[in-house]
Amino acid sequence: MKTLSFLNDHKDSAWNIFITQVERVLPHLGELEYWANTLMRPKRALIVDIPLEMDDGSVKHFEGYRVQHNLSRGPGKGGVRYHPDVTLEEVMALSAWMTVKCAALNLPFGGAKGGIRVNPASLTTKELERLTRRYTSEIGLIIGPQQDIPAPDVGTNAQVMAWMMDTYSMNVGATTTGVVTGKPVHLGGSLGRVKATGRGVYVTGLRAAERLGMSIHNARIGVQGFGNVGSVAAQLFASKGAKIIAVQDHSATLVNENGIDVDALIAWQQRNGEIRGFSDAGQLESEAFWTLSYEIVIPAALEGQITAARAEQLSCQLILEGANGPTVPQADDILHERGITVLPDVICNAGGVTVSYFEWVQDFSSFYWSEEEIYQKLDAIILRAFDDVWQKSEQLGVPLRTAAYAIACERILSARVDRGIYP
Ligand code: NAD
User: Fold this and answer.
1) Ligand 1 pocket by C-beta < 6 Å: which residues?
2) Which of 106, 138, 167, 328 would you label with 255, given CA atoms 20 to 30 Å apart?
3) Which of 99, 154, 157, 253 has most ligand 1 atoms within 8 Å of its beta carbon, as the pocket-test mutant?
4) Edge-to-edge strand ranges of the sheet holding 76-83
5) What percent of the chain has pLDDT over 90?
């Protein structure tokens, strides 16, 4: 399990989850299996120290990372996470999932990810800006529109991307919009980017439900994580007549058997920064989220949430992985045996990176598309990838995750073989 000397041996660590997922696809790779070791280690990992002058004049140090897992198919692509639990190992796994996701969608990118171990809510806006600018300068050695293009992830947003873009531009002496995606629209951001990941969860979820013969109308849905991904997915499913009966974030677990008013909850969350205190729903203790009866569950918070124990208990037909890496491999096996379909992250939440790809293309050409064009192109790309994965899963007789990895790894390793080893 331990592919690099400094890693921990915990089987459900994010990196070990990724390694197990790759091991499961090896029998389906034919001669390319020989090259699979390429995937078992990141190409490049940078650890940076970020000294931050706080508003009161004191200085604190934060640890940041940027990992480029694989660049065989193009520049690195992947978000930046600000969270108190961020580790190098987690960022490595997140970067590896980006490699697989970009290849599964056939986008011309490799995989990368970044992060800072910090609770952004504990900083003032000015402190957050200085932290972001110093981090960007430190990782400026390896990012760039042709090298590696960051984007938002947990704890970061369009404002953070604007600061990153400005800092990089100041350092290179020219405005370089294409260095990050997920920027504000007036700074070269793309229409549709904010809702893209949630929309991708929704359109692939609809297609999966259709394939399984499930109706969305009145379907009971549970959503863990009510940020960028979870809230948009919940809103779209509710607009199609589904009942969002439970929502969990870091602060609370809300339940309403008649369906939570998602628009009202979004308004509450935007005002308060959390869902706790919303009056039109009951509150449960957090573990109870996994014991309710659903048709669809959407994990949209952090990795490793669907453990073996929770997989034994879960009552649903379909899991839509809005989050990256929410299901541990042992839970995957249990869910498969129990006949619960898991639509894997590398397809289900790929709407964000797909519209990031559009943003990057638009920035290079300085020519911008309408929101309608963006959604049309997004739906076409993500549904084609979904259909390919569904077909591969039937052809190989394997779960959707292994099928997605088979398609992606074949593309990544073929690129590796054709490029050869330098020197
Ligand atoms: P976000 O910061 O907007 O929201 C995260 C949500 O998770 C918040 O509601 C937070 O309260 C909740 N949360 C955090 N810890 C929790 C816990 N222990 N239990 C329950 N809820 C918890 O982040 P986001 O952008 O919505 O990302 C969510 C997931 O989706 C992450 O796994 C991320 O990597 C993945 N993802 C995001 C994008 C994107 O475009 N933003 C794209 C692909 C995948």
Assistant:
1) 152-155, 197, 224-230, 248-250, 300-302, 322-324, 349, 352
2) 328
3) 154
4) 44-53, 59-70, 110-117, 76-83, 148-152
5) 97
Residue 90 CA to residue 298 CA, distance in Å, equals: 21
Q: Are strands 110-117 and 59-70 parallel, antiparallel or unpaired?
A: antiparallel
Could you read off the pLDDT of 143-174 as tens digits, one per residue? 999 999 999 999 999 999 999 999 999 999 99
Mutate-to-test residue for ligand 1 from 149, 250, 266, 270, highest number of ligand atoms within 8 A of CB: 250
Asked whether the beta carbons of 396 and 405 are under 8 A apart, the reply is no
Mean pLDDT of 11-37: 95
Q: What pTM does this model have?
A: 0.96
Angle at alpha carbon of residue 62, lines to 4 and 65, rounded to 5°: 35
Of all atoms in ligand 1, which is nearest to the CA of residue 274?
A: 11
Tokens of 329: 């491999």
What's the CA-to-centroid distance between 336 and ligand 1, angstroms?
25
Q: Report how far ligand 1's centroid is from the alpha carbon of 79 (Å).
A: 12
pLDDT at 285 over 70: yes
Nearest atom in ligand 1 to 325's CA = 32
Per the structure block, which two tokens stand in for 257?
């058997």
Catalytic residue check, 101 = no
CA distance 371 to 333: 39
Please state, in angstroms and rounded to a whole number, the distance separating the CA atoms of residues 421 and 130: 40
Owner of token pair 């970061």: 156
Q: What is the pLDDT of residues 251-274, one digit of tens each?
A: 999 999 999 999 999 999 999 999
Distance 417 CA to ligand 1 centre (A): 35
Report CA(231)–ligand 1 centroid distance (Å).
10
Residue 1 has pLDDT above 70, yes or no: no
Distance CA 25, CA 372 (A): 37
Could you tell me if residue 241 is left (phi over 0), alpha (psi between -120 and 50 degrees) or otherwise beta? left
Catalytic residue among 101, 113, 195, 392: 113
Give me the mean pLDDT over the 227-238 stretch.
Answer: 97
Query: Dihedral of the CA atoms 58, 62, 66, 67 (nearest 10)?
Result: 170
Query: In this structure, are residues 243 and 251 in contact, taking their beta carbons and an 8 Å threshold?
Result: no
Report the half-sphere exposure of 271 (CA within 13 A, side-chain side).
9
Distance CA 221, CA 238 (A): 9
- Residue 416 to residues 107, 359, 409, 419, Cα–Cα distance (Å): 16, 26, 10, 5
